[in-house]
Amino acid sequence: MITEAVSQRAIFEAIGGQAAVDRLVEAFYHQMDTLPEVRGLRAMHAPDLTETKRVLKLYLAQWMGGPADYSAERGHPRLRARHLGFTVGVAERDAWLLCMSRALMTTVPDADLRGAILQALTPLADWMRNQPGQ
C-alpha cells in the first residue's frame, strides 16, 4: 500500500509508533481547526472531535502497519461507504490532503517518509470522492 520499498510495518515503526500517529492526528485536526481555506471540510465534522480523532488514530495506525485495532473494533474499513453521507468532491479531497500534508510537515521529520505517506494517502483521499469532478 505505501510503496514496495517501504513496507507499512516500516512506516508505523519509522514514524515512532502509536505516539507518532497520535501526534499526526492531533496536528491534522489542528490544521482543520485553524486553516480558513478548509472551513467547509471542518464544518462536516462534529464540534467535538474526540471520537473522530480516536477513530482516525486507530485507522492510520493500522493503515501504516501497526496494530489492527481499527478492524477489531469496527470491522473492515469500508472507507468510501462510511463517507457516503458526506459531500466529498475535489475541494474536500484537496482540503483533507492540505491538512494532512501540513500535519506531516510538523510531525514527521524525515522528508522521504513524509513523501511516501502522502503519496500513498493521495489516491486513498481521491477514492473518497463521491461527487463528479475533474
* CATH H-level superfamily: Globins
State the helix count.
8
SS class = mainly alpha
Annotation, overall tally of beta strands: 0
Global mean pLDDT: 89
Low-confidence stretches: 1-5
Topology-level CATH name: Globin-like
Taken together, the total number of domains comes to: 1
Distance between the termini: 24 Å
Estimate the helix proportion, in percent.
Answer: 55-70%
What's the gyration radius in Å? 14 Å
Q: Any idea of the CATH class?
A: Mainly Alpha
Largest sheet: none
**Strand-and-helix sequence, N→C?**
HHHHHHHH
GO molecular function: heme binding; metal ion binding; oxygen binding; oxygen carrier activity
Protein name: Globin
Organism: Nitrospirillum viridazoti CBAmc
Family: Belongs to the truncated hemoglobin family. Group II subfamily.
